[in-house]
Amino acid sequence: MTRATLERKGPVTAIERRLFLRQTLSLGALAMLTGCDISDQDVVQSVLSAISRWNDQAQAVIFSQHRLAPTYPESAVVRDFRYNAYFPADQAPKLVASDYRLQFSGLIEDKRPWTLDQLYTLPQESQITRHICVEGWSMIGKWSGAPLGAFLQRIGADLTAKYVGFECADGYYGSIDMPTALHPQTIMAFKFADEIIPAKYGFPFKVRIPTKLGFKNPKWVTTMYVTNRMPGGFWEDRGYNWFSGS
Amino acid sequence: MMARSTVRIDGEEPGSSDRDVQLHPLSRRIMHWLNALAIVVMIGSGWRIYDSSPPFSLDFGFPWMFTLGGDASLSEALHNEDGLANALLWHFAGIWLLVINFVAYLIVGFVSGHFLRDFLPIRLGTLIHDFLAALRGRLDHRLGQYNAVQKVFYWGVLGAILVTILSGLSIWKPVQLQALTWLFGGYDNARIVHFLGMTAIVGFLVVHIALTILVPKTLVAMVFGRATSKPHSSKTLPKEEQP
Fold it and tell me: Do residue B175 and residue A211 have CB atoms under 8 angstroms apart?
């Protein structure tokens, strides 16, 4: 479960990281190449951001709602799936099942909150797919849950709207394009490796999207909304590409 | 595009001419330097991306001063991340320049006859001869005329760039372009192919730049479009001096 580079910030890898930094110099190659100061870099940054938005559109064109992510046999599933967040696993949000309510806002007709028991009554599907982190590593896992598209339809979401947004119990937030939200493999994963998804992997559910990079798969989701205004996301607001499709 | 890149002014017999001339039309020079810029951006940002999660368990990282992605500590302070985002922005901006320029270069190279005239033919006998001569430091260098080893090198780097672009696409879109990813042996293997492609390009660059330093007039030609020299006056090594 990728929170992009968050994993690197964790104390677990802090030592490795410090060693790495000590062996090298953290001089910006950009500054070396062009002799720019930071204000010049701002111009460079805005050009790079504009190209990144262009790349969002290019990826939306390449994306097909009917093209399925490759699936794998049970034997390919990784046993000890990597925990990934910007805090240690024991600090992952521990939501109480009986208190949990999934909230809704935006362009959704029926905004009544759902309890976990209600969510568990939704028809579920399983998938064994490859989770790919923006850093480059990947792992094959098994997730089971309710297709997001059918759920959005059921609560009367405006399926012609552009974006579906998520807010999470850990303060994380993110959003995806509607075509991806309606992709048949985009699910609200209540189970991981055939068990109720544990706290460290996103209990009560993670939105599993095998057509997107890991950080676009929010965990500990508490609120879902539909909008036409680009909601951005935690890592996207820190410079990562918004569409980030695979 | 009609300008000839190689002009033997005087006579057919190698060594009998008074001067060797190297000409590079403006379009080729522009594409060469755009490609150089794109390659530097792609390698610099690619090394930073590699560092965030190497594709194999080697204890090897590229020193950050040689990577592109901004100052890591600054990025950490501002964004709580070490510059991977920035490196990715560079990588996915540079790819447009690289691909568009590369495709244009291939089209012009084939249509203008530049590839056929200057990079072909390569005969096995000549290649072996030139390779052995190069190893002994006795390879004759004539400005504007490529020896068989050079020709193989140019085809090699074009192939390496192509493979690196295609393996990069298959890493970028392992779902949408899954047939391509499959061709490279799956996502993990595609990352290694991508790395090896980069390594081949860097290997070419080392030789390419070293030879440019030894024969600086080739740089003059690639900047100003024309360079001349007397035959054998631009030998790569003193050893080549003939009795």
Answer: yes
